[in-house]
Specification:
Helices cover about 85% and strands about 0% of the residues. The protein contains 17 helices and no strands. By secondary structure, the protein is mostly helical. It has one domain (about 10-410). The two termini are about 25 Å apart.
């Protein structure tokens, strides 16, 4: 019995989950403390501006960010440090180029973005450019660490970024810099995170990768469907904020941003399970091992955590909003349960797609892509109230989850 317990504790799904869940929860606590404190300090109107800027950052970061899943898969499947080093150097070079191009392009379109979001200070949008650059080059190091099952290399850069963001952001807002101060905090946190990520991939950087260049074509071929699913999933919980900022009043945009942040607690509380499941299942598949029990354990844990938080939102909506955001946001209480259900379904859909990709079933990405496009179209049509926008997202996400489940039912190997 003791031997079984010892083996269980050493299993990468448990030990990795412990680090990812513990570290990610600590990061998420800091990040949510940041949003809650900043939300109170800025008020609904200015907080709506900040949330829309964060949403733009998430969307423009998708192209290289989506490669993180592919990086994890290819690094975790590498047989030697030398082959892992070749993969790392090739991908790092590619992402560096893409990050530079995106950052420059963002500078040129910043005035148009500011106009669409009704943001008067265009410099707020311009600041997204350097933030994006550092976040993307850091991401390659984090994904590589995750693929090597060095999960601290994923967690600690996020921790460093979050601490700097909240300390400097809150300080600068208190000094009167408002949204601009918050953005400066994000930028400096991103720079620090990059340097924190370096020690965990130092072995690969110093390794003798040989004179043979890595053929990056298989990586790019795999990354395309991963890119599409990442773009779709990010769109599903960021585009709504952007469209609400465009269509609804500044006050309601701030209320919706608070609801969205509270809803994301569900996703970020359980997403570390999916992050750990992916490299473990991918490694098992590469070696011809069994993996179904890992999937079902991950699914059950994700569902339990999500339902627990949704239950709290159903039972204590005023308490959740009043304590976390303050009385200025209490009008959001009647819509909190709807946001909770939307993010619960969304979280399960992300898990199913990650599992499908880990076993090489890439056609599953059609479901989040269709859902994301449908959400944009229907919110453009139906946006009379906050509840109407959330219900559109809930319906398209539910149909997406059902489609993914049906796909997996008929398209997975018997292992």
């Amino acid at each position: 019995m003791n031997k079984k317990i010892f083996n269980f504790l050493r299993h990468p799904l448990f030990s990795g989950s412990a680090i990812m869940i513990g570290g990610s929860m600590a990061v998420n606590v800091i990040n949510y403390a940041y949003h809650l404190v900043v939300g109170r300090m800025l008020g609904p109107v200015n907080y709506g501006v900040l949330a829309s800027l964060f949403s733009i950052l998430y969307i423009v970061a998708i192209v290289p960010t989506s490669t993180s899943v592919a990086v994890v898969k290819f690094i975790s499947s590498a047989e030697t440090d030398k082959s892992a080093g070749r993969i790392y150097f090739a991908i790092n070079k590619l992402v560096l180029i893409i990050a530079f191009i995106l950052a420059i392009a963002l500078l040129f379109v910043s005035p148009f973005i500011a106009s669409f979001l009704h943001i008067n200070n265009v410099f707020l949008v311009i600041l997204i450019s350097p933030i994006l650059f550092f976040s993307l080059i850091t991401l390659v190091n984090q994904a590589t660490s995750q693929g090597l099952l060095k999960f601290m290399g994923f967690v600690l850069p996020n921790m460093a970024s979050s601490v700097i963001k909240i300390v400097l952001g809150v300080l600068l807002i208190a000094l009167g810099y408002s949204v601009l101060g918050a953005m400066y905090g994000v930028l400096l946190g991103g720079v620090l995170a990059y340097f924190v990520s370096l020690p965990y991939i130092r072995k690969l950087v110093k390794s003798d990768v040989g004179s043979v260049d890595y053929d990056i074509y298989p990586f790019l071929r795999y990354s395309l469907p991963v890119l599409l699913q990442a773009l779709a999933f990010t769109s599903l919980f960021t585009t709504d904020i952007i469209l609400v900022k465009h269509f609804l009043s500044p006050f309601n945009a701030g209320i919706y941003a608070a609801l969205s942040t509270l809803g994301k607690i569900i996703f970020f509380a359980s997403s570390p399970i999916s992050s750990v499941m992916f490299p473990v299942v991918s490694g098992r598949v590469a070696k011809g091992g069994k993996y179904k029990k890992i999937f079902w354990a991950s699914f059950g844990a994700t569902l339990f955590i999500s339902l627990f938080i949704v239950s709290l939102y159903y039972l204590f909506p005023n308490l959740a909003i009043g304590v976390l955001y303050g009385n200025a946001y209490l009008s959001a209480s009647e819509d909190l349960i709807w946001m909770g259900f939307f993010i619960l379904v969304y979280t399960l859909a992300v898990l199913l797609v990650n599992f499908s990709l880990s076993i090489g079933r890439t056609r599953v990405i059609i479901f989040p892509v269709v859902a994301a496009l449908s959400q944009i179209v229907f919110i453009w049509i139906f946006h009379e109230s906050i509840k109407e926008v959330i219900q559109v997202s809930l319906i398209v996400s539910t149909l997406m989850l059902l489609g993914e489940a049906a796909y997996l039912r008929y398209n997975q190997p018997a292992r």
